[in-house]
Amino acid sequence: MAIQPQDRGQIIERAVKIREKAYAPYSKYPVGASLLTGSGEIFDGVNVENAVYGMTICAERNAVFQAVAYGHRKFQAIAVASENAGSPCGACRQVLSEFGPDIEIYTVDSKGEVVLETTVRDLLPDAFGPEDLTAV
Ligand code: THU
Asked: Which residues, in sequence order, are CB contacts of 34 under 8 Å at separation 6+?
């Protein structure tokens, strides 16, 4: 099912807005993400850094984990906002991929301009997924 234009606009707007809440004192690279569930609900996330740098969580995974905690397993799209519309990292691609290759991804800059519009499948082809474990 195609993403409704108003939903697309809303997650883009929310990703830009929630980015203000990012905790990124070390990288100074705040990121906001807004995830549209299959049922049309929206969950936001930000990157949360830590003095132990490796404990940092990205905005995208934060949004996914929150949505899952509230019972969601189907996702339509995610908007990711950063200064320069950076692309989701490998770990976030893998986590999104767990929930489906068709999730749309919009990377947007700090003004909400969409720079890249793509899918999980295109960003992570031939991903390792749940079906790969059925042989075990
Ligand atoms: N970051 C994200 O939140 N999402 C990404 O996909 C790329 C990187 C964060 C992690 C870290 O807090 C900062 O951006 C710099 O890497």
From this structure: 10, 11, 12, 14, 15, 18, 42, 43, 44, 45, 63, 78, 79, 81
